[in-house]
Fold:
Amino acid sequence: MTVTAPARELSKIARRLTGEGRGILAADESIATMSKRLEAEAIPASATTRRDYRQLLLTTPNLADSVSGIILSDETFGQTLSDGRAFPSAARDLGILPGIKVDTGVVPLPGTDALVTEGLDGLGERLGRYAANGAAFAKWRAVFDVETITTYSARVNAQALARYAGVCQRHGIVPIVEPEVLAVGSHDLVACAATTRLALNAVFDELGEADVDLSAIVLKPNFVAPGLDCQRVSARTVATVTYDVLRDTVPAVVPGIAFLSGGHTSADSNDFLRELNAIDETPWSMTFSFGRALVNDALATWSGSAANVTRAQQALLTNCRRAAEATR
Ligand code: 13P
Structure:
């Protein structure tokens, strides 16, 4: 039987993940997504190349100076580095907390044009195994589109997030609660703000109903920004509107917020984060939990060749350091 970490311990882990000066590296792409990203760089996709790429990321020298946690997929969580260590224990050895993505992806939500995230069946049993193998935290991503969100789709996804978060805490695992409003599209800032508000209100209603300990979660939202195909606004404006939405929807007891990059460039994502952290006296710490904004350069530099590993690691480290600087 799993021995659950006391609530105090989970709050401490949530604070460690999101404290100033470090953030979370999202390296948990599904097998299908990771394979597509490898193939886009002309790297043949296999369990071995996916492992080699994640090993390159995790073993980047000095990564722990700017990275507090790494989110792994189920495949990587069960793999070993070339020195024989399992990924979760290698991460801990390196001073980085290992996390695990536990949702199983999205399917259409009948009766709507929206999506719903699945993965609740058997979740407790899976979390027990992940905890026994060293997972400190988990992630579940709900996906919302500005064009298709409804109050019903927000509630259904929020309910799943709340059930997931409750089961995580019972198993001594800090839940990353990720309601992502997609950045793809030509919607404007106002539409993104309204959609993010709807999603976050639903999420915190359901977390409350489920009696989830809000001091022991990490919220992973999108930046509130115009769609990627819409006219840009300044980073200061993105930060101001993002903060307005979060201040109205996220209780102050939540220790940390770790943003996803969502297809924004590394430079834009860092600018948004820097401007957010320039706002005085925010109730939560705000950091990054970026995927693409951190790893894209490393993947392109690596190209699947051992000769490029050092340069790829330098590219990753540069992006992680820049993101970490934006939290100060
Ligand atoms: P991006 O930063 O690439 O959006 O990925 C973060 C993530 O974990 C999405 O679930």
Q: What stands out?
A: The mean pLDDT is 97. The CA atoms of residues 201 and 249 lie 6 Å apart.
